[in-house]
Amino acid sequence: MSNITIRNVKAILTAPNGINLVAVKVETNEPELYGLGCATFTQRCFAVKVAIEEYLRPLLIGRSVDNIEDIWQLSMSNSYWRNDAILNNAISGVDEALWDIKGKLANMPVHDLLGGKCREAADVYRHADGKSPDELVDSIKRYLDEGIRNIRCQMGAYGGMMGNNTKQVIQSPAGALVGSYYDPKQYMRNTLRMFEHVRKEIGFDVELLHDIHERLAPSDAIRFCHDLDEFKLFFIEDALPPEQVEWFSELRNASNSPIAMGELFTHPLEWKRLIAERLIDFIRVHVSMIGGISPAKKLASFAEAYGVRTALHGPGDITPVGVAAHLAIDLSIPNFGIQEFAGFSEIEKEIFPGCPELINGYLYPNDRPGLGIELNEELAARFPCEYKENLWTHARLPDGTAVRP
Ligand code: MG
Questions:
Q1: Please, which pLDDT band fits residue 156 given cuts at 50, 70 and 90?
Q2: How far is the CA of 284 from the centre of ligand 1 (A)?
Q3: How far apart are CA 388 and CA 239, in angstroms?
Q4: What is the spatial distance between Cα 30 and Cα 295, in angstroms, rounded to a whole number?
Q5: pLDDT of 257-304, one tens digit each?
Q6: How many beta carbons lie within 10 A of that of residue 387, not counting itself?
Q7: Residue 213 Cα to ligand 1 middle (Å)
Q8: Which residues does 142 contact at the CB level (< 8 Å), separation at least 6?
Q9: Hey, which residues are catalytic here?
Q10: In angstroms, what is the span from residue 119 Cα to ligand 1's centroid?
Q11: Contact at 8 Å (CB) between 265 and 284?
Q12: Distance, CA 160 to ligand 1 centroid (Å)?
């Protein structure tokens, strides 16, 4: 027992790349000792701040920093209703900060606390995109030159023209609402042509991935995965939305491509059956969206028992503290699969000194105690978060029907 208690819990919001990020700082009764965690739910960052400061702070002030699991369980039960994205992120921010503090107290990096390294660094995949197959091949070649071995290939993001009002480009009915329109059939045809071209240009020695982003009707997704088999992808990501997971057994029967699923998951009920029935090959949750390092470590062990590997969600809307938390898990579990990595901007590295480093396609931790990341609060404050409407979430089919983005 350390006799160290929580003095304050605060949310620190910053948007250095124009993307809203939420970090949590847990301060202790030892003036120099604090922990940082990631609580980034970019689309609802201000709601997460309220959950942290109005609800978790009064619950946690004065409690010992020692008992991370007890604090996690208490925080999860305290709202009675649980496992939504806002509350999970708030809990994650505290959970990761407490692991950071424990690491600092033990003078060990968090991956050591979790059992030590199974590997020195995490193999990553990066995102290549282009408006045409040729543009995409150029983007892939740039990554290959940097030593990246695994590359996600998209053409116009997820089915084309993300984030723009595209109703004029796609033939939609008169009076159709503004939105980010996409045509599923066209997307499938274009993507198959794209992979044909890419494999012809770069061969089969490079690992390629693809993200369907849950955008297809189940029967279309199943046939599309079957059609993608010939390109021998490392995995196909999010082929179906969480609301349609029952279709995964049909998909398994139709396609032999490895399946990765889960970036939208927030509740254990969403992954239990998929893993236990071996309907997916990679579980790719976003650690802060499920409540932090504590539940993610348990999920990884559960998946290990069924031969399912991890591919933790690593988009641009995550703090470097969150990336360090992902990395602590990646390094310390035997069933690590791959890590998605969006990179850090120079200003992000200044705000969060200690960012993990990418060398030849491997992401390395800095091996400092805890999660190893600091936060320059003054600099962070110069990039305030603001609410912006995300047009890409206004996804619509050609006839104007609103669908999941
Ligand atoms: Mg994805």
A1: confident
A2: 9
A3: 28
A4: 27
A5: 999 999 999 999 999 999 999 999 999 999 999 999 999 999 999 999
A6: 10
A7: 6
A8: none
A9: 158, 213
A10: 25
A11: no
A12: 15
